[in-house]
Write a structure and sequence with these properties.
190 residues; 2 domains; five-stranded mixed sheet; binds FE2/S2 (inorganic) cluster
Length: 190
């Protein structure tokens, strides 16, 4: 057994776990932070992605004992960090995913959001190719990815106070921005 001191979402937490346990196992089965998903458990799917010192990392491949002294962020920490920074409601990226319908079953979302968040922190205005590249390790069985890419673009654009670039195929503007940005008025359909 190892006695660990982990910094998770800004909290210093003491926990005891078998020496060989991964960070994902400690998060889920010792700390009750089940937002990080156990998908393949072998580094293929990205569902377990957390941030370690701001970088997206696969928690299923990270030995928990090697994570002492590092700043670990899980999906549970995203909104509290936003609130602590003076924001309101969910993190803007979470909000953009919600408004763009960028999820179905939601299993991939924690990892997807933490990978995308890390991208926006190092590259605030990423191209579609950069987004694709940053999210290449996060598999989604449901959405087909388009709304996910759009949500990241929406969050990036809004952070810079501009409207996101409309999809190239659309003749007169951005069909998803109105639906993403506001609730329909009474009697108006999406
Ligand atoms: S659970 Fe870690 S990559 Fe799939
Ligand atoms: S929303 Fe179901 S796996 Fe992505």
């Amino acid at each position: 057994m190892a006695s660990l001191l982990l910094n998770v979402n800004g909290d210093q937490l003491e926990v005891t776990a078998p020496d060989h346990w991964t960070l994902l196992e400690v998060l889920r089965y010792r700390l009750g932070l089940t937002g990080s998903k156990q998908g393949c458990d072998k580094g293929d799917c990205g569902a377990c992605t957390v941030q370690i010192d701001g970088e997206p990392q696969l928690a299923c491949l990270a030995l928990a004992t090697l994570c002492e002294g590092r700043a670990i962020t899980t999906i549970e920490g995203l909104m509290p960090a936003h609130l602590r920074a003076g924001g309101k409601g969910p993190d803007p990226l979470q909000d953009a995913f919600d408004r763009c319908g960028a999820l179905q079953c939601g299993f991939c979302q924690p990892g997807m959001l933490l990978s995308a968040k890390a991208l926006l922190e190092r590259s605030p205005d990423p191209s579609r190719d950069e987004i694709r590249h940053a999210l290449a390790g996060n598999l989604c069985r449901c959405t087909g990815y388009t709304q996910i890419f759009q949500a990241v673009e929406l969050a990036a654009a809004e952070a810079q106070g501009r409207a996101p670039t409309p999809p190239a195929w659309h003749p007169d503007g951005n069909p998803w921005m109105p639906a993403c940005s506001k609730a329909p008025a009474k009697g108006e359909s999406r």
